[in-house]
Amino acid sequence: MTEPSAWVRMTQADPGHSAAYVQRFRDLAAGGMDLVGEARLVDAMLPRGSRVLDAGCGPGRVGGYLASVGHTVVGVDVDPVLIAAAEEDHPGPRWLVGDLAELDLPDRFDAIVCAGNVVTFLAPSTRGEVLRRFRTHLAEGGRAVVGFGAGRDYDFAVFLADARAAGLEPDLLLSSWHLHPFTAESDFLVAVLRPG
Ligand SMILES: C[S@@+](CC[C@H](N)C(=O)[O-])C[C@H]1O[C@@H](n2cnc3c(N)ncnc32)[C@H](O)[C@@H]1O
């Protein structure tokens, strides 16, 4: 059986957590905050009309933008409250409830974007499986882009070793979604991974 992610455990402990998360991002959007920096980077990697998986999509801010500029988007998230918000706020993409450790879609993607510290919420026993499934769901020439911060119990070196073991090699390592280079001192990683 798939070990539940830390996000699921958080929502079980605090049933209002997901609704508060949705509201926080709705308030930020209403206040004019730029919420699509990650999506702009992914868009720059792709020709128009590409197939994108938003892995751990939450309420859909990344996948929603990518669909709005002409990509075909599927979003998957384990939290049904967030998927309901994605459907309401960003109609267009296919929004699906599911655990990334059990991802099994007929689709193959030109890009998989996994933004917003999603990998740090994964149950450690599922990390390798999620990365293997990312690998399986990439189309020929496709790339996965994973971003997360330091200090969240998933060491960058361990993540990159897990990715290699799953058949994903680093194509480019950045320390931000705004193209700053990754260094030994970086406290954020954006890993662009390609099948090895
Ligand atoms: C901080 S939120 C980020 C949401 C979105 N990626 C964004 O950046 O706006 C983390 C998300 O990871 C999702 N998540 C965590 N573990 C997951 C899993 N095993 N499978 C699918 N989604 C998961 C949570 O449900 C939550 O939506």
TrEMBL record:
GO MF assignments: polyprenyldihydroxybenzoate methyltransferase activity
A GO BP entry: methylation
Transmembrane segments: none
Domain Methyltransferase: 52-142
Pfam families for this protein: Methyltransf_25
Source superkingdom: Bacteria
Keywords, sorted A to Z: Methyltransferase, Transferase
Family matches, as SUPFAM superfamilies: S-adenosyl-L-methionine-dependent methyltransferases (SSF53335)
UniProt-listed PANTHER family: JUVENILE HORMONE ACID O-METHYLTRANSFERASE, METHYLTRANSFERASE
Designated name of the protein: Methyltransferase domain-containing protein
Species for this entry: Geodermatophilus saharensis
